[in-house]
Amino acid sequence: MRILSSLSPLVLFSISASALRIVRFISDNGEIFHGDAILPANTTDASFSKTAKVIKGDIIGGNFTVTNEIRNINKLLSPLAPEATRSVRCVGFNYATHAEEANITIPDFPILFYKPWTALAPPNGKVPVTEGYQTQGNFTSTMDYEAELVVVIGKKAFNITEDEALDAVLGYAAGYDVSHRGWQIDRGGQPQPQFSMGKDADGWGPWGPALLTKDVIPDPQTLKIWQELVSYLKT
Ligand SMILES: *[C@@H]1O[C@H](CO)[C@@H](O)[C@H](O)[C@H]1NC(C)=O
Ligand SMILES: *[C@@H]1O[C@H](CO)[C@@H](O)[C@H](O)[C@H]1NC(C)=O
Ligand SMILES: *[C@@H]1O[C@H](CO)[C@@H](O)[C@H](O)[C@H]1NC(C)=O
Ligand SMILES: *[C@@H]1O[C@H](CO)[C@@H](O)[C@H](O)[C@H]1NC(C)=O
Ligand SMILES: *[C@@H]1O[C@H](CO)[C@@H](O)[C@H](O)[C@H]1NC(C)=O
Asked: Domain Fumarylacetoacetase-like C-terminal spans what residues (predicted)?
């Protein structure tokens, strides 16, 4: 939307309506596409979508076109390619209820950390917990799960005001912040927090199924976030 407004009416005419639910997927022929998910009649959840209108162009920069080419979705991937995503900045204790249940005083300044793009993974997959994370150390705590709101920044935004902040947002998605609390905090008796050891393993940042643009979510403050623990796989 932002880019469209700065273009001439002639160029505007060649660009179709902006996307609603941006997905990235493997199609029948094994090719990877970005698309605007076509929802089944009964749901707004793009994980049920079987088809999408192919999107051409630069998603992160917001300069893209939703075409009329429809492709089958065989497998959903993370809405943006991990290697195209670059910085993943995370905010700790962003939910007051989470801080309360962990008995932690909400800090005056937020705790910030990064996940590497190698942690990013498709939605609905298995989270790999390698042997070292299963066995090492005298940790008093282990794997933990947290549902998160992913905010995808679509333009350069340095030192902007709070009023300008949402203008830099391309859209929102569901995400999962996988942690090993032992490596992160307990360290087998050594009180040296290591967010990177506890949160950055390959595949510990699944997200999706879709990146919902501001046309779907004009006000993120209205969103509710929850998670369901479906099963626990122990190997
Ligand atoms: C919607 O329909 C699909 C089949 O078309 C089904 O797989 C899915 O469970 C349904 N979703 C809901 C939320 O009822
Ligand atoms: C948008 O993408 C088109 C097609 O790749 C390109 O020609 C155009 O220069 C781009 N516009 C902007 C503002 O980046
Ligand atoms: C937080 O404190 C309550 C009350 O003292 C206790 O029941 C609970 O186990 C504590 N939670 C954690 C994560 O330590
Ligand atoms: C675990 O703690 C015990 C007892 O303090 C110690 O003997 C052992 O070396 C520790 N093991 C590891 C892997 O740190
Ligand atoms: C942000 O902008 C303000 C006002 O121009 C300036 O005082 C401040 O130093 C800037 N901060 C950074 C990190 O550049």
From this structure: 88-226
Q: Please give the number of the atom of ligand 1 that sits closest to the Cα of 50.
A: 5
Is 160 inside any structural domain?
Answer: yes
Which residue has 């991990």 as its token pair? 82
- Identify the H or E element spanning 82: helix 82-85
63 lines ligand 2 (CB under 6 A): yes
Into how many domains does the chain fold? 1
Q: Which ligand is nearest to the CA of 144?
A: 3
Q: Would you say the CB of residue 65 lies under 6 angstroms from ligand 2?
A: no
**Does the beta carbon of 102 sit less than 6 angstroms from any atom of ligand 3?**
yes
**Out of 70-74, 89-93, 94-98, 195-199, least confident range:** 94-98
Q: Which atom of ligand 2 is nearest to the CA of 3?
A: 13
Measured CA to CA, the distance from residue 208 to residue 86 in angstroms comes to 16
Whichever domain contains 159, its CATH number is: 3.90.850.10
> Which residue, judged by its Cα, is nearest atom 7 of ligand 1?
48
CA distance 219 to 96: 19
Asked if residue 12 has pLDDT above 80, the reply is: no
- Look at residue 201 and tell me whether its pLDDT is greater than 60: yes
Does the structure show a pLDDT above 70 at 59? yes
Nearest residue (by CA) to ligand 3, atom 14, is: 102
**Domain membership of residue 98 as a residue range:** 2-11+81-231
In this structure, the residue with its CA closest to atom 14 of ligand 4 is 137
Amino acid at 192: Q
153-179 residue pLDDT tens: 998 899 999 999 999 999 999 999 999
